[in-house]
Amino acid sequence: MFHAASSPVTSPRSPLGEKDQHHRPQDRQSKRRDAFFDNAKYLAIVLVAVAHSWEPLKGDSRVLQAAYMVVYAFHMPAFIVISGFFSRGFDASPGKLGRLVTGIAVPYVVFETAYSLFKRYVDDSPGQELSLLDPYYLTWFLVALFIWRLTTPLWKTVRHPLPVALGVAALASVSPDIGDDLDLQRVLQFLPFFVLGLCLRPEHFRLVRRRSVRIAAVPVFAVALAFAWWAVPRMNGAWFYHRDAAQEMGAPWWAGPVMQLALFGCSLVLTACFFSWVPGRTLWCTALGAGTLYGYLLHGFLLKGADYRGWFDQAWLHRPLGEIAVSAAVAVAVTLLCTPPVQRVFRFVMEPRMEWAFKRDAAELAREREKAGERERERRGEKVSA
Question: Where in this chain does the record put each Acyltransferase domain (predicted)?
Fold first, then answer.
């Protein structure tokens, strides 16, 4: 989900968490960015927010439930694939570990605390516990991203990483004893998409953006919507959340691996179709792709606040025009939350500068000493010549 540095879908040309881009001149940064990935991040975060707004409304509409099911099949996989793609350069060096802490761990602690307190006081829920081990609402993704990023060097050394990741996800789907700590079920069941991103190369994204794929994506999405409409009363939608084992959903254990593989295939096809429709040129919304972490983490307060106050209970919102109005309003709201003014206000939380918390990298110190020595030699040379 996000700003170039710490967004769930990372900034083009930079691995997730490398916030040094923000401090480079704007012209250099724009040259290094790929408009396709910024556009994809922006469109995906809009889908995430809109789908979240459908949750309290979809019970009255089979069509909306079908659309919700289709969107949930690919919006998070798309984020995760891009996150994995831009995580290929993570090597667990001190500098990158530090940026992982400031770009992912610190926002997690802040927003996990903020969301828990928000529910306790706005929803009048004094029993709401504050626990960093039990991610609330949106914050599970930050936990997952932190764990996936830390394991990146391991996946880069495995001979066949994607089959191994699929095996891990399948085992998780039949292991209810994993529990809810750190939302590990989601971490493990969504893992194959991250590992797939690590395995991809730029030409793979160019492959799905061909005209033939864009055309084929139309009937694919049409079939997906029709199937979802048929499946609404027949299928447990919780499968798309990947947060429970099969047994916890009342299914036999063998359904876990079967659904895991089936959903991975379906999500992969829909994600490829989504990417095929993402424009590759610079648009008015391209710059907003650098602020998707802000939109992701902040829009939850708007939706949860509306839900806690009962605003979604109004009858007219449960009619087609009301559902469209809510979708449009949320799309506008999350767009505004990705803008530079919002980024400037919340940057101290999303991208804190914490040099005081980390040791200086030995290689960096050596380079600085070398540069200082060169300057000193140049200064002495100038004095001698004078």
Answer: 35-338
